[in-house]
Protein: Ring-1,2-phenylacetyl-CoA epoxidase subunit PaaA
Amino acid sequence: ENQEKLDEFQNRIEAGEKIEPKDWMPDRYRQQLIRMMSQHAHSEIVGMLPEGNWIQRAPSLKRKLVLLAKVQDEAGHGLYLYSATETLGISRDELVDQYLYGSAKYSSIFNYPTMTYADICAIGWLVDGAAIVNQTMLARSSYGPYSRANIRICKEESFHKKQGYEMLAKMADGTPEQQEMAQDAVNRWWWPSLMMFGPHDSDSPNSAELIKWQVKLKTNDELRQHFVDRMVMEAEAIGVTLPDPNLEYNEETGHWDFGEIPWNEFWNVVKGNGIMNRERMKARRKAHEEGEWVREAAAEYARKKKLRQEK
Ligand code: FAQ
Structure:
C-alpha cells in the first residue's frame, strides 16, 4: 500500500474525521473492523439465549414485558451491527458462516448459565453496565457506520442496565432468600463481567493498532478500571458486596485497586470450553438451520415482487 495514502488516512483519523464505507482504507483496517464488529454482532445474537431462558418464568407480567423488550432489543443490535459490517464488503451469509461453522468469536460472557431469576438482574446491571462502558467509547470510533450503530445501541443499553439495577436493588432489599439470591448472582457474574473488557493491555495483540486508528479510543485496562470504579459505588448504594477481598481504594491513583482476574478461566472460555459454549453454539446452529425455509420464502417473495414490478 502506498505510503502517501496511508499518511493521508492517518491524518484524517487524527483530525477526527469519520471514515465512511466508500472511502479508501488500509486492508488491515478493514479486516480489523470486520473481526471486531462481527464479533460484536454475534455476541448480541448469542446474548439473547441466557436471558431468553427466563422469559417464560419471569416473576410477573411487568418483568416479562421488560425482559421480552430487552431480548428483542439485542436482536435489533445484532442486525444493525451485521448491516454495518456488510458496508465493509463482506456478506451476511459469510459472516454467519464464520460464526456458526468457522472460527469467529463472540463475547466470553454469554457462555455462563443463568441459574436463577436474580441472574437476569445481575446481567442487566453488570453485563449491560460493562457493555455501555465499552460501547460509549465505540460510539466515537473512527468508522462511521460502527460509531452510529453504537450511539443507538447505547441508548437502549442504558435502559437495560437501569432495569437490571432496579430489580437487583429490590431483591437486595427483599426477604433473606431474595437477598441471598441477589448476592449469589453478583458473586457469579462479577469476574466474568470484568473479563468482557478483554485481556490486560500487555496481552492484547490488537489494541495498539486499533488505538492508532481510533477504532478503540481507550485500552481494555482503562475501560475495565472505569467500570470497577463505577460498580463499587453502585454496589454500595444497594447493599450488595463485590466478591473481591482485594478491592481497595487507592488514594494515589484515585481508583479502586482490584484482585487478579482468573485468566485461565477466561482463555478456557474463549477457546470454547466454558460451561455453556457447546450448548450455545448448538442452539444457534439449530435456529439457523431450522430457519432456512423462512430465508428461502423471503428471498422468493422478493424475487416475485421484483418480477411484478418489472412487468
Ligand atoms: N470474549 O487483542 P484483544 C453485548 C479475544 S456486549 C471473547 O484485546 P480487541 C451486549 C479477541 O477477540 C459484548 N473473546 O482484542 C449485551 C482477540 O481474539 P482474535 C460484545 C475475547 O479486539 C449485553 C483476543 O481475545 N461486545 O453483546 C474477549 O482489541 C447483555 C485478544 O484480545 C463487543 O464485542 C472476550 N471478552 O479487544 C448483549 C464490543 N476479549 O479476534 C446481550 C466490541 C478479547 O484476535 C445481553 N469489541 N477476546 O482471535 C471490543 O470492544 C473488543 O473487540 C474487545 C477485545 C474489548 C472485546
The mean pLDDT is 97. The beta strands are 248-250, 255-257.
